[in-house]
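Homework help thread (please don't just give me the answer)

Our assignment gives two proteins as sequence + structure token strings and asks us to describe the second one. The first is just a warm-up. Here they are:
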Amino acid sequence: MTRGKQKIEAQRRNAERNQKAKGSQLEARAVALKASCPICKVQLANEKQLGDHYASKHPKEKPPAESS
């Protein structure tokens, strides 16, 4: 094996890389989703998306006033 040492080092590096905690994205997702539709409870990132959501999904309803 001419690449024995390189192979062992690569395996060690990959093991270190895979050992790091990947973590869950649930917390980051919860922070990013700030607005929610009171009718269908879908969560959206901002008020503009909520307005677009109302226009496409609930055209007969009026969008709520911006809270901020």
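The one we have to describe:
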Amino acid sequence: MKYVSGPYFEPDFDPVLDRFGTPGVVIDNETREDCTLVKVDSVNRDGVLLEMVQLLTDLDLVISKSYISSDGGWLMDVFHVTDQIGRKLTDPSLPEFIQRALVPFHRPGSGPSPRFTTCLGNVVGPGGPDVSDCAALEFTVHDRPGLLSSITSVLVDNGCHVASGQAWTHNGRAAGVLYVTATADGEALHPSRWARIQRLVNAVVDARENVTGERHWVSVSEPVQGRVHTERRLHQLMHDDRDYESGPAPTPVDEELFSMGEKAATARTARRTETRVSIDSWEERGYAVVKMTSRDRPRLLFDTVCALTDMLYVVFHATVGSQGPLAIQEYYIRHKDGRTVDSNAERQKVSRCLVAAVERRATHGVKVEVRAADRSGLLSDFTRVLREHGLSLLRVELKRHKDEAVGIFYLVTDTGGEVRAEAVHAVRARVAEMSISLDMVKDAPGWPPVRKTSVPAPPVAGQAQERPRSSLGSLLWSHLGKLSNNFGYISS
């Protein structure tokens, strides 16, 4: 995957004018040899960019590049995508699924909601994870060893079952969203029990927090259709918990990375993969220009767009890609009230929030996959064994596949150190007695997936640009009139 410096407008978009008011999705396997282009044009509405990125992410697709433009009330995006092992999208049902999933409000009476099985075997749509009948237990708290074990023990003692959920840790804070039922068969939890469970879980959390004086929050909410996406909800919880406040101020980006050639940039960034953010004001155009560099990883674009959306910033233009192991993102944004990021204090806060959004899902610790026949008390049993062996959790993802419970756990020692193989073997032997299988998971040695060919970067325009200097710059604005006024073809 390569970062393309400079603006990008796909030359072979269908004429937008011919379909004004009707969103369109094009799945293009011809233009690029190494990836599929997913092109979307639509009336711009609140949150539509996040919906697009969320859908592609939930489909277990790798977004290697993205070019976004949404001035003039119209949105035009191009996503370069492959599956998780670098292959083009060849499933004939995928284009229709993406079209129907992205624009369902334009297809009344078009039949049942679409469903799709991803390359990793996950089901999106009907038949996939459904938490609409589950109560949601949400919490934010000071992180500590055995936290999830304590919470799940309370749930089991009160006849509750964790059907699915996720928990994250960052900067000494922990947040979780657990979907709870009365039984492993999915029987709904009676509303009369919600308040008691919330009170008991709060008491478990409060037992520690009263000593340290740390803040915490616990809530049990009723089942509801159309819940906020779980991972987006975790971002919201950790943001509201102010996990971004700890640590030093973010380091500014290396501006030269946004204009130099890929080979030079790759050598320059080989050892520089910490998350960096710079924010400038482009007063002539009324935009804040956000530039970010970080280690490339799955779901990075989703996490960044989540943070900007939930801070009420609107992305008008963006280009996203990478140079070697380093992901490079550039966004032209305004607040929903029309402001840019004006003050230094606001720049610092936005920078910290973006770094936190990236780092919450950064991969640390030993990754293990756990499988077992789903039953009440399963999560409590497993986390208790981890606690007994001096292991703590950095991140947890729980789901159910048919009658089997599947969990991904990232483990460290109680002191935050690296887990030795002997400890994992001991845990594996212990949980095997409970009919639980445990396997260590080794992620692919490189990210993103290796592709067959490279895509050369376009030449960089030679003329001077308005300040601040940027990779989109004046060339983007030479096309903006066409985008805003007649929605016709746009070529660079």
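TA reply:
I won't write it for you, but here's a hint about the kind of observation we're looking for: The CA atoms of residues 155 and 231 lie 22 Å apart.
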